[in-house]
Every structure is written in structure tokens, then in C-alpha cells.
Design a protein that fits this description.
3 domains; TIM Barrel; Urease, subunit C, domain 1; single chain; 8-stranded mixed beta sheet; 21 strands
């Protein structure tokens, strides 16, 4: 009982990260600040704050603390191996499936989650995969390490879809027919909502989709959640803006490679754009007017920009790299940080101040070794809802297990890396092959040891007398 009580005290003790640079997440940065959090809530943020008695103190000098990153439009936890159909749960067959709930197939113990969390991602907007007119509902899920770390399926945050020539092939083959299909579906949503009892009695006309799919669009027509449409061509974006105005919908553009051409219209309509900076090039006839500085240009035009990785099943861990690419192409650093933290959190139903390092904010935080938008920066410590995540990913465990070991050669002061393996001789027998590679500059050349004999690319004279020759190994293994 005493041990359990001590453990409970340790777990519940406040944490104070001191003398740390803080990327607040709202576009501001604090230097040499202290951040204190207790459980799931941040209790204090400021400079020269007193550390509470009994709090765990973490020195942050030379490091950066930020909100946990939010990946919008991710299929994390919905797949294991992309090419194995039985291990993929991110989509439903059909041309329009708004009732499909991506969260139903979420696996909170997927090995991929730990990998992406090690890159600082603590929350994702879990969305359906694939490209179809209406692909399904999205949900926010925090990436804890427990079996009950699940999305709230009673709170969808968006309906995702797509609009391009490929999607149009399932609806008459043209963009005009695609818009017609959208109008028919949303007309049916409103009709069914007003005539549900009559429909259930069989006393109404046929509908384009089943009642389950139509009910999933009720929050969209009520303006409670946005319709997120993957679209690149400027003319298509303009058509969707007119459709959203006609239907009184909240619209979000995803991709938007040519969105800069209609930036003024997007700003006037209050339509945000989810940008994939590494995918903003000329990739199709819908993207002939692509530009690498898309995020920067949209921001300069007054459009709200959210940054996300491309929707590849393994793309979620690239979120901060995508933000770094945007900064390289002119987006202000502070804006890029907000675009992967507070921006997506606010866009998809988060409370004001969500994913921001401030008093009362949620303590899903990442302590970085340096600038979080630099590729070589490491996430040294990660907290999700105040709980520190210490378990390494399966990939990291495997990397450590099979990492070549460094050792000192006997009778020599030169550290080497050793690779060992079995090789096959011409007579069919196998023998052990060792390869020793110096890890110091200007040291001895590469040495190879096979069957107990030592050879060097520079000949016998290159071998110093102090180099240890291993004892003869067996002729076969």
C-alpha cells in the first residue's frame, strides 16, 4: 500500500519545465520561460515563476517546448500494412458514403501511433482515406498509449470529400454532373430531415442515399461541422465556393494547389485551406498553376492556412517537416507553428486556446532538442494529457536491437564498427565474415577478417602490429 501511495504521488506531482523557449502555438514565442502543469491542465506560464514544492523540475535551457502537433486528415490507426487489404480500414466501398465513420476502425494500439508520436504528433483528425465525392465523417483522437484512447464517435468534427475529374467519373463523367449530384444529395438531406416520419412509413419519394448516410450530413447542413473538400483547380474551388454559399455550408479546401488564384474570394468567404507543402507542385492538369510558396502566398492574402502532411497512410509523421518546407518557401515561422497546432485544433471543433501553451490549456506538450521545424531536431519528452509517454516505438526497439555495436579493438586505441555475417564460398561451404570500419577520421583503413585471416585494401604492410588478429573461425556455420 505504501508503494502504491508513493507511486500515486509521483504520478500526480506537478511538472515544471524551466528556463525553456516556448512556442506558444498562437504565433508568439517566450524566451527563458517556465511552464507548470498538473495532470491534464497547464496551471502557469511565465518568466521567473516559482516552482511549486514537490514538483518535478525539468531543465529546458537550449530546448523548445511546444503544444503537441495536430495532424489533420490522417488515417493513423486505420491501417497496418497498406498493401494488405485485411489490415486497412480507412474507407468504405461506394461513390458517396458520408455515413462512414473513420473512427469505428481505429486501433489505439497500432504500432504506427508510437512512431508518429515520437515525431511530436499528439492528436490527429482521423479522416476517411481515398478520393470520393463524400467519403465519410472525421473525428479527433488524442494519441495516448491506452486501449481506451479512442475518438468520441458521438462528436464528428467534419465530413470529408473530393472534387475533380476522377471523382466525376462515378457521377456522369463531368464536373457539371458532379455538382448536380452534390445538389441532389443536399436537397435530399433537407427533405429527409423535414419528412423523416413520412419516409419511414414509405409515404415519400426515393432518396439518392440511404437514411444513415443522409443523417450523417445533418451537422453539415446545420452549420455545426465543415465540409472538407480535396480540390486543386481554381475553377473548381470557385464552383465549390458558390455551392457552399447557396447551401449555407461551412467549407474547407484541402490541397488547394491553385487556391492562390482565388485567394481574395477565399478570404471574403472565410474559407480556410489545408495545405500540403511538399505536394503543391504540378501533379495533374488540375495543378498547372502550382507554386512552391502556396502557403506563404495564401497567408499574405489573408487566408487561414492549416498545414498537414499528404494523406499517404505513412504521412502523418511528416507534419513538422511539411511546416518546415512552408517556412523555407516564405511562410513566417510562427505562422507555420500555429498551422500545425492551434490552427487545426480550432478548425476541427477545439475550444479557443486549444493546442496553445497557456494557463488552462491542455498539457499535451513536446519538449524538443531545438527548433521543432528542423528535421534533425528530436522530441526528447512528450506528454499527452499530462501523462508522459516513455515507451519507445517498435521501430526504435528494433533499430536498437540490431544496431552495430562499437567496441575497442584489443591492443589498439581505435574504436571500430563491426559488421558480421555469413558468406558462401565457391565450394558451397559458409564462413564467417567480419568487417571492421574505423569510426574516427584519419585512422586506419577498412579491415576485413574472414576465416580468421586478416586482409587490408592497402596490403600487409598497412596492418599495424598492434591490430589484433582474431582466432581462426570454423570452416562452416
Amino acid at each position: 500500500m505504501i508503494a502504491l501511495s508513493l507511486l500515486a504521488c509521483i504520478i500526480s506531482a506537478p511538472v515544471a519545465v524551466v528556463d525553456v523557449a516556448v512556442e506558444v502555438g498562437d504565433g508568439t514565442r517566450l524566451e527563458r520561460a517556465t511552464v507548470i502543469f498538473d495532470g491534464p491542465a497547464i496551471t502557469a506560464v511565465g518568466v521567473d515563476l516559482a516552482v511549486p514544492v514537490g514538483a518535478r523540475r525539468i531543465e529546458g535551457q537550449g530546448k523548445v517546448l511546444s503544444p503537441g502537433l495536430v495532424a489533420a486528415g490522417s488515417q493513423l490507426g486505420l491501417f497496418e500494412i497498406g498493401l494488405e487489404a485485411s489490415a486497412v480500414d480507412d474507407a468504405m466501398n461506394g461513390a458517396a458514403t458520408p455515413g462512414f465513420r473513420a473512427g469505428d476502425g481505429f486501433n489505439p494500439l497500432s504500432p504506427h501511433i508510437a512512431v508518429d508520436r515520437e515525431e511530436g504528433v499528439t492528436s490527429v483528425v482521423l479522416s476517411p482515406g481515398g478520393a470520393k465525392l463524400l467519403s465519410g465523417q472525421a473525428f479527433v483522437v488524442e494519441l495516448g498509449s491506452r486501449l481506451d484512447s479512442l475518438p468520441d464517435l458521438n462528436k464528428p468534427v467534419a465530413v470529408f470529400g473530393a472534387f475533380d475529374g476522377y471523382v466525376a467519373e462515378s457521377f456522369g463523367g463531368s464536373r457539371g454532373s458532379l455538382l448536380l449530384a452534390l445538389r441532389e444529395i443536399f436537397e435530399d438531406v433537407r427533405f429527409y430531415k423535414a419528412n423523416k416520419a413520412a419516409f419511414d412509413k414509405g409515404a415519400s419519394r426515393a432518396l439518392a442515399l440511404s437514411p444513415t448516410h443522409l443523417r450523417a450530413l445533418f451537422p453539415v447542413v446545420d452549420g455545426k461541422v465543415p465540409l472538407v473538400v480535396k480540390v486543386d483547380r481554381a475553377a473548381d474551388i470557385r464552383a465549390l465556393l458558390a455551392f457552399a454559399k447557396e447551401q449555407k455550408l461551412k467549407l474547407v479546401v484541402e490541397g488547394g494547389v491553385e487556391a492562390w488564384l482565388v485567394g481574395a474570394e477565399l478570404r471574403a468567404a472565410g474559407v480556410p485551406v489545408i495545405v500540403h507543402p511538399s505536394q503543391s507542385g504540378v501533379k495533374s492538369f488540375d495543378a498547372l498553376h502550382a507554386r512552391d510558396d502556396l502557403a506563404a502566398v495564401l497567408h499574405s492574402q489573408g487566408v487561414v492556412v492549416v498545414i498537414s502532411s499528404w494523406d499517404s497512410q505513412n504521412g502523418t509523421s511528416r507534419v513538422r517537416q511539411e511546416a518546415g518546407i512552408a517556412v523555407q518557401n516564405g511562410l513566417p515561422h510562427a505562422v507555420a507553428v500555429a498551422a500545425i497546432t492551434s490552427g487545426p485544433a480550432a478548425l476541427f471543433g477545439g475550444a479557443r486556446g486549444s493546442s496553445v501553451v497557456q494557463k488552462g490549456g491542455r498539457s499535451s506538450l513536446v519538449l524538443w532538442s531545438g527548433d521543432p521545424l528542423e528535421a534533425l531536431t528530436l522530441a526528447e519528452q512528450i506528454w499527452v494529457g499530462g501523462v508522459e509517454i516513455t515507451a519507445p516505438s517498435r521501430e526504435r526497439l528494433l533499430a536498437e536491437k540490431y544496431r552495430p555495436k562499437t567496441f575497442q579493438m584489443p591492443k589498439s586505441n581505435t574504436p571500430v564498427m563491426v559488421n558480421a555475417g555469413a558468406k558462401k564460398r565457391a565450394d558451397g561451404a559458409f564462413f564467417l565474415h567480419f568487417e571492421a570500419i574505423s569510426v574516427l577520421r584519419n585512422s586506419s583503413p577498412k579491415l576485413r577478417f574472414s576465416e580468421g585471416r586478416c586482409s587490408s585494401p592497402l596490403g600487409p604492410k598497412a596492418l599495424a602490429p598492434s591490430v589484433h588478429k582474431p582466432s581462426p573461425s570454423p570452416k562452416s556455420v
